[in-house]
Specification:
- 27% of the residues lie in helices and 29% in strands.
- The chain is α+β, with helices and mostly antiparallel strands.
- The chain is globular, with a radius of gyration of 24 Å.
Length: 329
Amino acid sequence: METPPKLYRYRPLEEALLDRELGALRDSYLYAPPFAAMNDPMEAFYETGSPGDRIINAMLAPSGKRIDGIYEILSKMIDRFALVSFSSSYEDLPMWAYYGSNFAGMCLEFDSAELAIGDFQGERLRPVIYARNALPSLSVADMAPERLEEAVTARITRKRIEWAHEKEWRFITGEVGPKHYLDDALRRVFLGPRVQPEHAARICEVLDRRPVEVLQGEIRGFELTFRPIKLATPLEECERVGAGRFDPAEHLYAEKEIREFLTVPFDNLHEECRRTALRPNMEELAGVDLVGGDKSAIYFWTTYKLRNGREIYHKRYFDRRLGLIADRT
């Protein structure tokens, strides 16, 4: 299944949770809870064991061990998996009701490709599969190295079919805690039509000098519509996280070959480099060159600085017309 270009995360804004949510916006992170803490007990459901276990227990009997001990280790491993859930829609009314503080919360819109550059780099983004039945119990056969990852992933990305309207996607991470993202991975914040005005004002304040648009929800008949109340700040005026270093004389390699490769003016490349260096988290655009021996693309070798101080290295690839063709870590 193709990853949607935008991912949405509904968040509550009750008074008791407001500071937590504002802090996450301020520091540009999403919190990844453990799999065992998921809301629906049926989506955190899996079983272990198979009829063949009695044979294995008989084989283990001389050692005084049982297969249950292995399953216990497996269960502890699964329960430590952390997940961050998203939807592919910001217009799902039931989700506004039960995840967005009964229309008084917010929904965050992320660019999927940019979100994968920060602390989610290298993590698996998987669609949730909706079904009427749970998968069979995990057995010893599922613990084979070539099967274990997929067997576990299939169970932690499965929900009852009644939840299919959520159109959910999940980042599966190996560690519980905050996952920081690039400031401009967050594109828009939709506020519910019942959001308290003071909450809306505080969100706009937190996102001041960020490249993020904030929209206020309104009810018109049976329709939920949104109007902008804060425009995205231009990159030139955004609060910086990284230094934004780029020196063409130092970081632009093989200029002659690049000129021959491009079918657009060379100045377009300079403009693309300038825009890249302006991104709030850009620490350094450390190199621009042609790819390997086949010279099939131009790459930008970049370093981003997250708001937790961590630096992320990333390559971005462009074709002859400077069209983005792939993102790779």
